[in-house]
């Protein structure tokens, strides 16, 4: 049987300040191809191009990736502020109903960073625009040099930076075979109010939610706040996630066949 097909959401970009484009990071594609064992297929993160029903009929799983843009605050009843830009409202309009549709249909869906946050908003939760501003929270944003520029070394940017404690006996603890893992951290926005079907199963040492599952989902429906796509070829935590996602997509394909 042919490999499962996993759709990877695109993000809106403007190339050379003039050409609207949809882009997906190569790391996500390599993680799907090399670790999940599936065929990566990017789809446009905008509802005027991507039809949900057609997409769900063409893929065996959906990967909602991280992105520079935040989920727009009007999606969870908060006020817009210029300091929290950029936004990608076209992706919001596609991703949020897509999550609900995938969960209802049992189509495997995996959310990373922004995708993790989209899971929460899709099920009625809210986000805080800048986690580091909350009392007692660490700075979860990517490392920078003393002059404020982003660190040039990807190994430094994506290095493991904090522990995550997992719910004993939960989906993530079972997946990893332990109750504590260590992960990277590259986000400003984070979970505030937890969505109605969202179950938090992993929490950073400062109380920030890091791993979630969707209660009573008909199929694979997990999200992580860290960037699991960076090094799943060598990182055992991230490898376990993409292998499980790939296995779920393969089962879905067999069941559909």
What does this structure look like?
There is one protein chain. With 257 residues, this protein is an alpha/beta fold. It has one domain: Rossmann fold (3-Layer(aba) Sandwich), CATH 3.40.50. The protein has seven helices and 13 strands. The strands form three sheets. It has a nine-stranded mixed sheet with strand order 4-1-5-6-13-12-11-8-9, with helices on both faces. The protein has a two-stranded antiparallel sheet with strand order 2-3. A two-stranded antiparallel sheet has the order 7-10. A hairpin with a 4-residue loop joins β11 and β12 (209-214). α3 (89-105) crosses α4. The chain starts with a strand and ends with a helix.
Q: Termini distance?
A: 9 Å
Number of strands: 13
Q: What's the multimeric state? A: single chain
Task: Report on the biggest sheet.
Answer: 9 strands, mixed
Q: What's the total helix number?
A: 7
What is the molecular shape?
globular
Tell me the structural class. Answer: alpha/beta
Return the CATH class: Alpha Beta
> Which fold name corresponds to the CATH topology?
Rossmann fold
Helix content: 25-40%
How much of the polypeptide forms β-strand, as a percent range?
15-25%
Count of the domains = 1
The succession of helices and strands, N to C, reads: EEEHEHEHEHEHEHEEEEEH
CATH architecture descriptor text: 3-Layer(aba) Sandwich
CATH homologous superfamily title = Class I glutamine amidotransferase (GATase) domain
Overall pLDDT score: 91
Low-confidence segments, ≥5 residues, pLDDT <50? none
Q: Supply Rg.
A: 17 Å
Summarize the structure.
With 257 residues, the chain is of the alpha/beta class. It is 29% helix and 23% strand.
